[in-house]
Amino acid sequence: MYILEKNTFMKKNLLSLILLSISIFSYGQCNGRYQTEIFNTVSVSTVNYSDVYNDFFHKMDIYTPDGDTVTNRPVILYMHGGAFYAGEKGSVDCVDFCTSYAKKGYVAISANYRLAANALTFAFYQDIQYTTVLKAVADIKAAVRYLRKDHANGNTLGIHPDGIFLGGYSAGAVLSIHMSYIDSISDLPTSPLDVQALVSNIGGTLDGDAGNDGYSSEIGGIVSFAGGINDLAWVDSTDDPIVFIHGTDDNVVNFNCGPGLGQATVLNLCGMNAMKPTLDNAGILNDTMVYVNGGHGWAGTGHANPLFTQAVDFSTDFLYPLLPCNNSSVGITEKKNHVNQYPNPANDIVHYSSVKMIEEIVIYNQIGQIKNKIIVNNTDHDVALTDFERGIYYVRLVLDDSSIILKKLSVIK
Description:
It is a single chain. By secondary structure, the protein is an alpha/beta fold. It folds into two domains: 3-326, Rossmann fold (3-Layer(aba) Sandwich); 339-411, Sandwich (Immunoglobulin-like), CATH 2.60.40. 24% of the residues lie in helices and 28% in strands. Helix 4 crosses helix 5. The longest helix has 27 residues, at 126-152.
């Protein structure tokens, strides 16, 4: 039996309130789009997104709302599950997710990626597991670059190049997280298996071998339906915002930490419950929906399961404040923000440092009230926490280029 965590809706509304309070001056710019389904029908076209490979694994289905004339739409790529040796872009959840998002005004994409050739060898050999994931990461990076390449050459898809997000279910969510959170080859282990050496299988760089070179593969946020990460140490303060939906009894991608597929020979994966404290400590914007007593399969049948519909709506609410149309003059981002916050959790003092000038720091409590507002005009500043109670706070930093950085601060006493 699935039971939605009791405080989920409170948390969802709280996050929306905090973000609204922080950026209220820039909201309302999306013209009623991207929150609810405002289009009745969508069209689907299929393209090969690689300029190196032309095969089944490099095809993606592009969902666009019929009759839409907007040419600066956000994009979300959703990747199928299947344990990295099965699955494809036409899976029920892929179709339902992309259709829902397209009806809300997005360009939604269901993308294939390279899979392991043999399920049995994949399950027992960790070098094959790492190589398979690296190839999948390379493919989806090429898919993101395809979008920016198209934008630079006529923008036939009508997208905003700064509004590209990733999501997926199961292996697709694992893929999304690893694409975003593995920042460099040096992050990868060299023992007991030299994973850094395996990067040679995708051309020697994390950008990979699937083409569309010369364009960025950066994204703005992640939607994780039952996803996880191999190494919590890969989380740092430059990583992308993420929203999790996960079941507490999931042993395929463990809600806490455990071997993938529940099989001892498969690489370890740490799910939502293990990732969240690490994300909070790094100041990464995140939110969670928990299905108490829920397993792994809730998303597999798409909208036939109401839990999937709840998850789609929850992820929509999370992404909405991050869209370019809500930040037309400023950017709310955690990626490459050049602002460090430490320590976190903090007790008496928290320090902020930036390569850019910090003009202002505003700290909000969990109901959106201003706790402290400081004019800085410096690249470094210490904030005293003497009058702060124990709890979670949201920090808004305004830089001298008018960009806005949002961080989460945990105060302990």
